[in-house]
Amino acid sequence: MNKRHILGSVIAASALIASSLVSASSATAATGKLGDVLKRGKLIVGTGTGNAPWHFKDASGALVGFDIDIAKMLAKGLFEDETKVEFVTQTSDSRIPNIVADKVDITCQFMTVTPLRAQSVAFTSPYYREGVGLLLAKGGKYKTFAELLKAGSKAKISVLQNVNAADMVHAALPKATVQQYADVPLIYSAIDSKRADAAATDQSSVSWYIAQNPTKYMDSGYGWWPQTYSCAVQQGDQVWLNFVNQVLNEAMSGVEFATYQKSFKKWFGVKLPEPKIGYPR
């Protein structure tokens, strides 16, 4: 072995040792939930399994989606290894109870921030702004939101059955004819069969369906009823909350932006612009 190879091996070994020492030192120095997670060596995340593009199982049975990628970004921030995460699958109703009972370290499960929920858990920095959008069929009667609005009652909009469904649609299209369906797949089949001109659904679902079927569907170009998605942690541990927020903020606008950008493009079909250099907002 020549001197260059020996020197390279020494440098690599020194870097590994230094990294291990820093990790060990961090685990010892950190307190509360952050210290517990570092000492355990993995992050425990509560999430769901049946809602693409957020959290679902792919053809191989692996848990994937934007929420899953967010959790992996947190694991990388903790351990420099995105695989050091354990997922606890849970229903939507279990999101807050599992946090309060300390069954998970954090919940990342397309959770809408509300003042009522904030009385029970601490919400992290938002990682997505959800809303309602309109999915159109390419080659259909209407091609834009403006055309749907102008059509008045002639525009037929499919939507998932809900006590607020008609009000939701009429907030954007006051005169549209609302068709309510019992299951989500039916609102899309209504477009395919031309029974409906557009489907009103989560904007993330609109983006996902278009990304999966770019020659079949298109976006109306209008969204409304905004709501914020955040992860949630137990109240009372500001150090843990600050750490999670730091990881999320750097993912969305700092050193890990490329990872966040790649995930956003994969699940929503949108390439986010690079953060501007200079003023950090």
From TrEMBL:
GO cellular component, one term: extracellular region
Domain Solute-binding protein family 3/N-terminal: 42-271
UniProt keyword terms in alphabetical order: Signal, Transport
GO terms for biological process, alphabetical: amino acid transport
Membrane spanning stretches: none
InterPro entries: Bact_solute-bind_prot3, Solute-binding_3/MltF_N
Tagged with keyword Signal: yes
Annotated family: Belongs to the bacterial solute-binding protein 3 family.
Protein name: Unannotated protein
Source species of the chain: freshwater metagenome
